[in-house]
Design brief:
homodimer; mainly alpha; Arc Repressor Mutant, subunit A; 6 helices; 70% helix; DNA-binding; DNA-binding (chains A, B); HTH marR-type domain-containing protein (chains A, B); WH-like_DNA-bd_sf (chains A, B); WH_DNA-bd_sf (chains A, B)
DNA sequence: AAATTAGTTCTCAAAATTAAGAACTAAAGA
DNA sequence: TCTTTAGTTCTTAATTTTGAGAACTAATTT
């Protein structure tokens, strides 16, 4: 079991609550929190269980969910049966793209709603269209912003 | 009870499911869907209940939640005790700002995690910092993008 | 071969969420 | 004054979610 300061434990809970609000179960959020807060580059199944005081079953399910969602990854070492879990840090730009796609999917539904409503309420149509078009514009700008940020950062 | 085509009903469900995935209860999502899909500029409590076949209690709670979250609004007419509900269409740019603030709040937690971890894992620190800084950059750009979009649109 | 390890899967119970229905309130109308 | 209307609140039941614990599996070690 890892020794964690009260501040570390508190921060794990805060990160956990943030993830709960994003729709994850509490245990899942705490595991993400732990992986971000721990100084160790990776943690084993056992360390996670003992440190967070959670069951093997909840941990097994949570880790597999997080692996599948590409929020974490693991390394192995030959001659060692354990898996060494860590937060996946290289995929945040893909995450941004995914988030934008979800927003775009909703924009498409709003467009369908506009189409079905016809011209009964032109003011509403226009306002909904504004929203749709800004979201599409924002989405289209994200890759450029990413490039720009990468470039600016190099200096 | 409003007459709705099968396509309209289907679209209400899709908008409902989107909102369920965003963390709303099913009834809440369907009400949002109905308000976007209906040709009427606003709907009464009774019309919502009858059209969606949901209880008064669920409807009362859902409408109050949506009012409080500023997803809907209502109008009144003097000499008429009913409230006339509609989707709130003017606040989507505030919504974008709120979403960005939530992302920034998480960035702040990540920064705290970086600080607590110290220099044990510099590669991780750098990657987390990249994520934080891109999110901050993206967030800072949103108001400009909104302005730019508004300007470009005027032509 | 027996025991340990690293995890998975199954079963179940507790807790939380969701929404119905009934009882209620406060204003308006008859 | 009695009734209707527009909605709220309370109680309760069904459903879903969450996670514990035990039993299990498949390697690995002894």
């Amino acid at each position: 079991m890892l020794k964690l300061s009260p501040e570390q434990r508190q921060l794990i809970e805060k990160i956990g609550i943030y993830h709960e609000q994003q729709g994850f179960p509490p245990v899942v959020g705490r595991i993400i929190g732990l992986l971000f807060v721990s100084e160790k580059p990776y943690l084993t199944f056992e360390e996670i269980i003992e440190t967070l005081n959670i069951s093997k079953s909840a941990t097994s399910n949570a880790l597999n969910l997080l692996l599948q969602m590409r929020h974490i990854e693991y390394t192995t070492f030959s001659g060692d049966r354990k898996r060494y879990f860590s937060a996946l840090l290289d995929n945040w730009n893909q995450e941004v793209v995914n988030k934008m796609n979800s927003i775009l999917a909703f924009s498409k539904l709003l467009r369908q709603a506009n189409d079905l409503r016809g011209d009964a309420n032109p003011d509403m149509n226009q306002k909904v269209l504004d929203r749709i078009e800004f979201m599409e514009f924002l989405s289209s700008q994200v890759p450029m912003l990413l490039e720009q940020w990468l470039k600016d950062r190099q200096k």
